[in-house]
Design goal:
heterodimer, A: 319 residues, alpha/beta, Rossmann fold, five-stranded mixed β-sheet, 14 strands, globular, B: 281 residues, two-stranded antiparallel ribbon, 10 helices, 7 strands
């Protein structure tokens, strides 16, 4: 059983802000750009500490991405910050041509991703960003699960040479990973060993996967939980090893079913070792206004949905 | 410094390269390329400080150039070859499979002289601003040059960038707009027009200069004046009047040669109007 008593809740965007500040102190080449959302992205501490290395782009995201590509060309390590919707869909062509195709060392850091943005509604709740970003050649895609992991990931991506999309969110969420963890890009993190079913989760849904695993274990099942914080490159080996044991899979993500983590895992399994899969994800719909927990419940992204998905794949495996 | 005569000889060779490159693969964009042959030649022969070999991607302590309207790649490639970035015989690979000379400029294949991909319009000015800001952080006092098409200014990202550079006094940036007044579907005034650009840039806090892009002396004076105006708290833009297809009489005065290659007969006619000065690739 994993521990799911909540000790502390913090927002993952604050983990980004803390990581960025730390990077600012460590590496003089790290610069930051923000499109009029400095407070929301928690970039204000970096701005205050390193005003010369902070670029206020205004509400002009396309220009911000282009400037980041230029700064990277000049040897800087730019971190851009805005909401996930404006970090991806709004500037897709700029990222594609000026960053990904041009091999620029730009870190696109995106907050307020997914349904848990809450009351602002569907205009801001992007559920397609992982898909958009993972389709781009050269792009690394990361979606950490809590404050500590987001901070560690922010620091780690500065060490990696190349474009990265780092996705995090708005709500305060349980903090359950180690504050001193070393974040390895592309290396899945096994939270718990199990033999009956594998749950692969990313971002906020990792916590929901842990809650679901405890419910399943209460009925005598052995559940393996793996945190896929890096959607691309996918840790093929960790996934295939797990499925070789459990022979059935649940994926969980705060994203569209099309194009997300589940989609990547299904491709991997289809090419290697087909197994029953259920995807806990948004099914071809836009979100709406509401509280994060209400939205996760309404759109089928709650603990109970993971439990039910596990029961389904277990029945198919055993049927 | 090369003399006007020497520059004009190179310009003729660049024009020959352009028409031969697009003719060889029966694709590419000769019109805008020909119109900018003088600008590229003066910029790379007499104005910018740079290292061609080795080519340094970060361009630290060098002047750097960004081509935003990437479809005029033929003139860029020919200029880079004549400036020593790579062997001019490589121009024969333009737009062919496995070439470093992609249809639109790219860094993917590692062609020396290219720092950013362009082709999807409207992105180069933003990139140039970022490069200029990096130079300031690096205490590098060289300049960033960027060329944009006039039709390209219809892309909204340019106006984000123009507003940014003016507000933030990015004064190590020297932009040039190729004001040939043509775009694919017709003349700019008919498609979505502006008749002048000075007032627009000035309204955003830019220093505006003008030059005749098809006269090497005017281009040299314009670029030198821009250099003198750099570092004065304002970004600089040169509105450069050109004729699309310049130097090949039947391609001039029309948007029709924007993206059309010459046939065999037209190639011979174009070459006869530009006698080889440096030897063909």
């Amino acid at each position: 059983m994993v521990k799911t008593e909540v000790l502390e809740k913090k927002d993952t965007r604050s983990g980004f802000g803390a990581g960025l500040l730390e990077l600012g102190k460590r590496n003089p080449n790290v610069v930051a750009l923000c499109a009029d959302l400095t407070g929301s992205l928690k970039m204000d501490a970096f701005e205050k500490e390193f005003p010369n290395r902070f670029f206020q782009a205004g509400i002009a995201e396309a220009n911000m991405i282009g400037m980041a590509a230029g700064l990277a060309t000049g040897g800087k390590i730019p971190f851009t910050g805005t909401f996930a919707n404006f970090s991806t869909g709004r500037v897709y062509d700029q990222i594609r041509q000026s960053v990904a195709y041009s091999h620029k060392n730009v870190k696109i850091c995106a907050s307020h991703a997914g349904l848990t943005l809450g009351e602002d509604g569907a205009t801001h709740q992007i559920l397609e960003d992982l898909g958009l970003m993972k389709m781009l050649p050269n792009m690394v895609v990361i979606n950490p699960c809590d404050y500590n992991q987001t901070k560690a990931a922010t620091i780690a991506i500065a060490e990696y040479e190349g474009p990265v999309y780092l996705r995090f969110g708005r709500p305060k969420w349980p903090v359950f990973t180690d504050a001193n963890q070393k974040f390895e890009i592309g290396k899945a993190w096994k939270i718990q060993d199990g033999t009956d079913v594998s749950i692969f989760a990313t971002g906020h849904m990792v916590w929901k996967a842990m809650e679901a695993a405890n419910e399943l274990e209460a009925s005598g099942l052995s559940v393996e939980i793996i945190n896929i914080h890096t959607i691309k490159p996918l840790d093929d080996q960790a996934i295939l090893e797990s499925v070789a044991k459990t022979r059935c899979v649940v994926t969980a993500e705060e994203h569209q079913m099309n194009g997300g983590l589940g989609d990547s895992i299904c491709q991997l399994l289809a090419r290697n070792t087909p197994a029953p899969v259920e995807m806990v994800a948004v099914n071809d719909q836009f979100g709406e206004s509401g509280k994060p927990e209400q939205l996760l419940e309404k759109y089928g992204l709650d603990t109970v949905n993971i439990v039910e998905a596990a029961q389904k794949v277990l029945a198919r495996k055993n049927g | 410094m090369k003399t006007a005569e020497e520059l004009n000889n190179i310009v003729k060779q660049v024009r020959r390269d352009i028409v031969r490159m697009v003719h060889a693969v029966q694709s590419g964009h000769p019109g805008g390329s020909l119109g900018c042959a003088e600008y590229f030649t003066v910029l790379y022969q007499n104005i910018m400080n740079y290292s061609a070999v080795p080519f340094n991607m970060d361009g630290k302590n060098e002047d750097v150039f960004v081509l935003s309207n990437g479809h005029i790649s033929p003139v860029f490639y020919s200029t880079l070859a004549h400036a020593g970035f790579f062997d001019k015989n490589e121009l024969a690979t333009f737009r062919k499979l496995d070439s470093r000379l992609q249809g639109h400029p790219a860094t993917e294949e590692g062609l020396p002289g290219i720092r950013i991909a362009s082709g999807s319009l409207g992105q180069g000015l933003s990139v140039a601003i970022g490069m200029a800001q990096a130079k300031k952080l690096n205490n590098d006092d060289q300049n960033v040059y960027v060329l944009m098409g006039d039709g390209e200014l219809q892309e909204g990202q340019n106006w984000e960038a123009i507003m940014y550079a003016g507000h933030n006094k990015v004064d190590n940036l020297i932009a040039t707009v190729d004001f040939n007044k043509q775009q694919i579907d017709g003349s700019i005034v008919d498609i979505m027009g502006f008749t002048e650009l000075r007032s627009k840039f000035e309204a955003f806090g830019w220093k505006v200069l003008e030059m005749n892009g098809n006269d090497v002396t005017s281009v040299q004076e314009g670029l030198l004046s821009a250099k003198e105006n750099a570092g004065n708290g304002q970004p600089v833009v040169i509105v450069m009047s050109t004729e699309m297809g310049n130097g090949v009489d039947f391609m001039m005065g029309s948007h029709k040669w924007h993206g059309i290659p010459p046939n065999d007969e037209q190639l011979e006619e174009a070459l006869s109007q530009n006698i080889s000065s440096l030897g063909d690739y």
